[in-house]
Amino acid sequence: MFGYDWPRFHAAVNDLPAALLLVTVLFDVAAWLTKRSSLEAAARWTLWIGVIGGWMAVVAGLEAEDAIEHGEAIHELMETHETLALVTMGIFTVVLAWRLIRRARLGGAEQTAVRLLSVAGLVGIVWTARVGGKLVFDHAAGIPAATMQAEMHDRAAAHQHHPGEADEDEHEHADSLADSTHRHGPGTPAHKH
Length: 193
Fold this sequence. Notes:
Elements: H1 6-13, H2 15-34, H3 37-67, H4 72-102, H5 108-138, H6 145-156, H7 166-179
């Protein structure tokens, strides 16, 4: 699929819907505070696109779950991530359906309920993303064991910077400062250049 496997496709499609749904909530709250119809329209369109894209990300994530090597810790986190994603997308789907069915006829209490539901969805996005980040950054989910072993071997090997690389330049700069006429007044706190 466009040169992607399911885990990479999931990674490629999950950020934009989350951002759009976040912006949906912000547009909706701004429309409520300012009474601007343009912000209501922006909230409606970002909600539509965010829900469609969000469900694409969920489907890709469900497929990715079966495609990656994993142990028990990753499996438990994937189940939590999946549940949170389904609940979050369910919330935003209900908000979209509610707005489509009721159109502009939402009363004050109904409008408040929809906004609170959207805020609950926003909390869901943040929580889902946190667990997804934990999967990738704390447990290396999606990284094949052979790749991890090769990377661990590479990191264990001595690493040398070539002349002109950042760390080398910093060391040379520090050495040249020690020999230069650059001086600091008494009481100047220690610092780097």
